[in-house]
Structures are given as C-alpha cells and as structure tokens.
Amino acid sequence: MHPILATALQFAFEKATLEGKLTIGALAIVSLFSWTVILSKSFQLSRASRMSRKFFDAYRKTRDPAELRRGGLTFEGAPAFELYAAGQEELSYQLKSHPVRVGGEVRISPASFDSVRVTLEEAAMGEALALEKGMIVLSTAVAGGPFIGLLGTVWGVMETFAGIARANTASLTAMAPGVAGALIATVVGLLVAIPAMFAYNFMVTRIRAFTQELDAFAIRYATQIEHTCVDARTVAESVSEALERSLERAGVAASAARPPAPAKP
After folding, report:
1. Distance CA 1, CA 13 (A)
2. Measured between alpha carbons, how far is 108 from 228 in angstroms, rounded to an integer?
3. Fewer Cβ close by (within 10 Å): the C or N end of the chain?
4. What is the pLDDT of residues 95-111, one digit of tens each?
5. 259: DSSP letter
6. Residues 3, 135: Cα–Cα separation, whole Å
7. pTM of the model
8. In the predicted model, what is the mean pLDDT of residues 23-49?
C-alpha cells in the first residue's frame, strides 16, 4: 500500500468514533466470510470444470450408458458424474426389482423408467444447489457492504457536527478529523463490496453454464437409457407374448399330465 494512502487510512481510523470502529469491525467480518466463499468456491468451480471435461470425454467414447460404471471409472467433483452415478444406481435397482424379459434381455418397464427420470431430475437439482451454496454471502456483501459503510459515515458525520455545535466552533481544523474518521467507513464498505461484486458476477455466470450443462446431459442420458434399457413393446405386443407363453406352458403341462398310450400287443 502506498505510504500516503496508508497514513491517511491510519489517521482516519484513529479519528473514527466508537460507532465507526464498530462498523468497520462488522465490515471486516463480512469481508472475511466473503473471501472465504470466494476462495472455496473458486476451487470448487475450477475442480468441477476440470473433472467435467474428463467425464464428458470418457462418456462420449461409450455407447452403453452403463459402460463407465462397469469400468469402475470415477470423476469426483464433476456435477454431471454425480448425476450419472445417481441414474445408474436407480437403474440397477429397477433392473433387479422390476425386470422385464424381452427376447432373453433384461429391461425395465416405462413405469420404472419414470422413476429413473425423476432420480435424474432430483440429482440435477441437488447439484445445482450445491454449486450455488454460499453465493448468498457474496450477494449480501455486494448489497449490504456499502450501506453498512454509509451508516457508519452518516453516524460519524452526525457526531462530528454535534461536537462542533457543542464547541461553538466551525473551523476546518475542527471538522476535518471527524469527517475523515466518518468517511473511512464508506471506504471500507466499498472495499468489501467491489471484490465480492466481481466474484459474484463471474461465479454466477459459470454456475449458470454448469446448470445448463447438467440439464442437457440429463436429457441426453435419459434418452440413451430409454433406447437401451426400456421395454419398447406396445401393450398389445406384451399381451400377445404373455398369452403365447401361457399357451406354451399350458401345452407343456397338458402333455406332462396325459397318460401314456397303451402298448400294442
């Protein structure tokens, strides 16, 4: 910091009233929370971006939605991977609990697929909320920092003029220290709000991009599951096949129950 600026801030802080110093202390706490969120959220978004690129590169190379799960690949920190894992877990449960046999393959019914789709929507919502967690601190710092500083400034100026009125003097020498002590609260408020504003705008843009990416992936992933794992037969076809199987079982049972023909002499 420039020596002249440092000296000016030190002088203003020393001349600030108790209320002004309390205001500056409150702003320092807000700044501490704000920078904690900025640093942690920057790390989270950077990791999410890096791992998402790796996940999508691996996913585009597959044709079967379950291939990554069978391979045991993990991409911790990628929101899309968390959505993928939740969808695979629900799909595995539906395949085990409500399987549908189609030509020797195990698939799920459209009703079971609705459960998988709901799971994907819930996972996408959960990941979006996780990305947005802590952003309220930055928005509060942006909106509240200048007003808290302004409150300290107005309070300090009010006390300065009250002191001048009691001393019955209006010289610049008497006013300058009090006004300087009052204005430092506004300066600190702006120093808290400006970094939070730039960080908030940048992070909100990245989070919005992640959210749109999640929605697009959820649609694509659900479509692939529908094409590869869902019973696509019509109701008439399902009923017809069920009747054929019933008739076959009935024929086998009748053949087994029929007594053998007597041997000819």
Report:
1. 16
2. 10
3. C
4. 888 888 776 778 888 88
5. P
6. 35
7. 0.74
8. 92
Q: What secondary structure letter does DSSP report for 231?
A: -
3-state class (DSSP) for residue 165:
helix
Cα dihedral sign for 64, 66, 72, 73? positive
CA distances from 87 to 26, 59, 62, 217 (A): 45, 14, 16, 12
Cα of first residue to Cα of last residue in the chain, in angstroms, is: 121
DSSP-based three-state secondary structure for 105: strand
Backbone angles phi, psi at 30, to 5 degrees: -60, -40
DSSP class per residue in 206-250:
HHHHHHHHHHHHHHHHHHHHHHHHB----HHHHHHHHHHHHHHHH
Measured in degrees and rounded to the nearest 5, phi and psi for residue 102 equal -135, 100
Give the residue-averaged pLDDT of 19-34.
Answer: 87
Task: Give me 250's structure tokens.
Answer: 């009935």
Whether 203 contacts 138, CB under 8 Å? yes
* Residue 102 token pair: 């189609």
